[in-house]
Specification:
alpha+beta, eight-stranded mixed beta sheet, binds D-MYO-inositol-1-phosphate, binds calcium ion
Amino acid sequence: MVRRIDWKSVLNECKDRVFEDIAPLLKTVDQQQPDMDIGAGGDPITRIDCAAENAVVQTLTEHDVPFTLISEESGFKEYGDSPQETYVTTDPIDGTTNLTRGLPFYATSIAVSEKPFLSSVHSALVADLFHQTFYTAQKKRGAQRNGRRIEPSKGCPIEEAVIGIDLNGYRVPEIAPRLTSLIQKTKHIRHFGANALEICYVADGSTDAFIDIRGKLRTTDMAAAWLIINEAGGRITTENDEPLEARLDPKQRVKFVASANEKMHRIILESLKAKKEMK
Ligand code: IPD
Ligand code: CA
């Protein structure tokens, strides 16, 4: 029989342990770092990435939870005697560049699912490690920031909207022209550099949308935030307005548009479509 686990409290413990274990390492980020491996997601691993992943794994194993870990750093690893019961997908540190450069915007992201697919995620945590703000969600039970229910912004004219766009280092000549008309219309374009947290900012109304149509972001980065924005009542789909579905795998990439509300979503999707049709 599958044991019932109180995921809300287990994820909360994971977050506390990550905070505790990375604290001493944060004091050393400006020093020379030891050479380490390349992670399963293809980027170099830092000591802090490892410490954060270990903190998550140790918390789960101490609770005797059998699970398959799907991590941006270690890839797939099985724990316990029935690891196919539960999948724990994590990006131990989202926003590693911010962290190593002293920029205060990085997070730990953990998503729990019964199958290794985005649509199966039922419990999620994104913990802003600098501000100690944490976002949680459970399927059909809403989303919270520091335990209080959140919802996205109700709407504003597109000119006044705060919109995050990720254009980082991938297919820029192809993607940038598709976003020009939106960038011209909107006065407040942002990119903070940790996409899990940026999706949570849409979920809690801090921003109005976040767009990443590069096809570079891994499902390990955004699986938890996917549930958080859905449970908060926002929209997150493909650029053709299809529900997002993808394998949870550090090698699996996704493209998406996340918006606070239907009206904002429509305006953004129309603007992307118009440019595609003009090509
Ligand atoms: C990165 C951040 C960044 C995005 C990159 C991601 P990482 O995550 O989310 O904003 O532009 O594509 O890889 O590498 O720091 O976990
Ligand atoms: Ca990472």
